[in-house]
Write a structure and sequence with these properties.
mainly beta
Length: 143
């Protein structure tokens, strides 16, 4: 079992890790050059990682990726092409995670949910950071 990948015309839109995926050792699924690293940490009992920090350096990020980890409830993540066409609907359950890498996305809550959301900062406000997109067929947005 591995990470699920949603691609369209050679562009990676999302990566999904289901709650039941198990790895024997730490495994990152994102390419090393990705501005957002996505993976699973796994170590055996007794493992100790030495104290450390991550070396600061200037990074230039051209994209903004976002990760959801579902804590409770059920949510559908709708992945749309740059033209606004529905590519895929991914239903996430507790413990599932998704990284939104590229493109337009929307969510539809199926059961009351709570998710951890992680994305690059700084956050410059909804008016600047979030661009709403009109789609011709919005039937996928209705419950």
């Amino acid at each position: 079992m591995s990470v699920e990948v949603v691609e369209h015309k050679g562009v990676r839109y999302a990566e999904i890790i289901r709650a039941n995926i198990r790895v024997e050792k730490t495994t990152f699924f994102s390419p090393p050059e990705s501005s957002f690293q996505f993976g699973l940490l796994a170590h055996g009992a007794g493992f100790v990682e030495p104290p450390h920090y991550h070396r600061p350096f200037t990074r230039q990020v051209e994209d903004l990726q976002q990760m959801f980890v579902v804590q409770r409830g059920v949510v559908a993540v709708l992945l749309l092409s740059d033209e606004g066409d529905l590519l895929e609907e991914v239903v996430l359950n507790p413990g599932d995670a998704i990284v939104l890498i590229h493109g337009v996305h929307a969510i539809r809550v199926i059961e009351d949910m709570q998710c951890i959301s992680v994305k690059q900062g700084p956050f410059l406000g909804v008016g600047y950071d979030k661009v709403e997109v009109k789609v011709e067929d919005d039937s996928c947005l209705r419950t």
